[in-house]
Design brief:
The chain has seven helices and ten strands. It is an alpha+beta fold. The strands form three sheets. The chain has a four-stranded antiparallel beta sheet. It has a three-stranded antiparallel beta sheet with strand order 1-7-3.
Length: 202
Amino acid sequence: MISNSLFTGTLKEEVQSFGQIKTYPAGARILNEQSYIQVIPIVLKGSLRVVRTEKDGREILLYYIAPGESCIMSFLGGLHHEPSQVMAIAEEEAELLLIPVAKAGEWVKKFPEWTDFIFKLYHKRFEELLSVVNAIAFQKLDNRLLHLLTQKSKLFNSKEIKTTHQQLAQELGTTREVISRIVKQMEHDGLVKLARNKIVLV
């Protein structure tokens, strides 16, 4: 069901007519790198994480997509018929509204409301990408890890974060051993409490 506050009027009618709602389990790949984009995903429930991977398998987290948001990277790639430069993964079970690329492009010219939606997303994602660049260039890894845990806490609306050291290492582009050492120090400093496959922010 599409939220009443997401779109209005004729745009909402067209979204309901041409969009397809689909549910994906946690961990499912919604979009692969170098694949051509056929649909634009809008998150209705759950969340997605968008990452960029290297040839050696390392990945770096770019941003999360929360309910009511979409992936601007997939929109731009689909609009210009270019392969995706990112990978989108369901962070938790996610219900998505899938919009055909052709319609997404058509609506930019037809509905100011849709254009405003896209530009607001672009602005938000641009700021988030600047934050990623700033963090990699200037912040220590322990600060980046604490920021990532805070992001996940807000995303799940819970201080209890279900994740593994390996998952955190992948998202920050480092090794599990380094993350384990930092997390233990954070526990010693009273910032977190540790449990099996779970970290609790204090």
